[in-house]
Amino acid sequence: MEASRINARLMREAIGHEDESILVRDEYAALRSGQIDIPGEQAFVKGCDRLVWQFPMYWYSCPPLLKEWEDLVLTYGWAYGTHGDALKGKELMLAVSVGSAGENYHHEGEFGYTVDELLVPFKATSNLIGAIYRKPFILTGVSSDMSNRNLEKAAKDYLSCLQGDWPAQ
Predict the structure, then answer these.
(1) What is the domain range of residue 37?
(2) CA 94 distance to own-chain centroid
(3) Exposed end of the chain (fewer CB within 10 Å): N or C?
(4) Which among 134, 139, 135 has a CA at the least distance from the CA of 156?
């Protein structure tokens, strides 16, 4: 996420307030080798109560590394299926930054869908693995012209979201 000014700022806000309830991990930095340590990743997420997948929206979905991570780590018999209950009851929340303005994301808007509708595959994944899907933190209009002032407010809002109870959807 180094290339994203927005996601880098959100991550810095969370890192600045890390404690036993918030542990920030940059998967791109952790996986620089290009190899996903499946048992290591499974042990890491099994030890968490809440998973937050923070990413910029690419082509109405997540970046390829997150999709690959899902494919490799959320395996049958571990995350779902017979005896696959490692993540059951954990919370899953998305923190998504979207380049275009929020008004473009509605049925009569430029894209014809809301951001929440575009995130339905993640909700379905949450259901499959038995996680509690929390309302996503969605930040729209983050193209390069987002003001520093608005970004600082968004970072504070994000931290409040991470620290507090965030409603199930």
Answers:
(1) 5-163
(2) 3
(3) C
(4) 139
Helices 5-15 and 148-163 cross at an angle (nearest 10°) of 40
Q: How far, in Å, CA of 156 to CA of 50, rounded?
A: 19
Q: Using the CB atoms, write b or e for 50-59: b if 16+ within 10 Å.
A: bbbbbbbbee
- The CATH number covering residue 77 comes to 3.40.50.360
CA pair distance 28, 156, nearest whole angstrom: 23
Q: Digits of tens for pLDDT over the chain (169 positions)? A: 445 788 888 988 888 776 666 667 777 776 666 788 899 999 989 988 888 999 999 899 999 889 999 999 999 999 999 999 999 999 999 999 999 999 999 999 899 999 999 999 999 999 999 999 999 999 998 886 788 899 999 999 998 888 876 666 6
Q: How far is 16 from 37, CA to CA, in rounded Å?
A: 27
Name the residue among 5, 49, 4, 45 with its Cα closest to residue 25. 45
DSSP state of 113: S
Query: What pTM did the predictor assign?
Result: 0.88
Q: Which token pair is 27?
A: 């998967």
Joined together, the tokens standing for residue 76 give 């049958």
What's the alpha-carbon Rg for the chain, to the nearest Å?
Answer: 16
